[in-house]
Amino acid sequence: MIRIRKAPVGMPDAERQEYVRYMTERHPEIPSGTLDILLDGDDVELTLIPDTAVKFQRIRRITGYLVGDVSRWNNAKTAELADRVKHGGIT
Fold first, then answer.
1. Segment 10-23 mean pLDDT
2. φ, ψ of residue 26 in degrees (nearest 5)
3. Whole-number Å distance between alpha carbons of 52 and 33
4. Which candidate, 81, 88, 79, places its Cα nearest to that of 64?
5. Which of 11, 17, 28, 42 has the fewest CB atoms in 10 Å of its CB?
6. Partners of 44 in the beta sheet?
């Protein structure tokens, strides 16, 4: 369920609910969160903040394999990972 956190004073409830309906249809991947509504002249800025972070799995190239989790590797492959030279930059 999407809740309204911020909205302009005096905005009719029907208009608020229409913005909630619009964001629910536009972002079905976000089932619950908070909505901020900001009016700037004729422009409306809608900010939807999910209650929970969108889950994803990080995939890395390690020792020639694309992996997200090394928990199923054997001892030899885990040792190879531990022996790698790590360079500066993005980790």
1. 94
2. -75, -30
3. 8
4. 81
5. 42
6. 39
Query: In this structure, are residues 58 and 68 in contact, taking their beta carbons and an 8 Å threshold?
Result: yes
DSSP state of 8: -
Amino acid at site 72: R
Per residue in 45-73, pLDDT (tens digit) is 999 999 887 667 778 777 677 877 777 78
CA-closest candidate to residue 20, choices 42, 38, 37: 37
Find the helix or strand (DSSP H, E) in which 36 lies: strand 33-40
One-letter amino acid identity for 44?
Answer: V
Total number of residues shown for the chain = 91
d(CA 19, CA 22): 5
pTM check: above 0.70:
no
The answer to whether 47 and 35 have CB atoms below 8 angstroms apart is yes
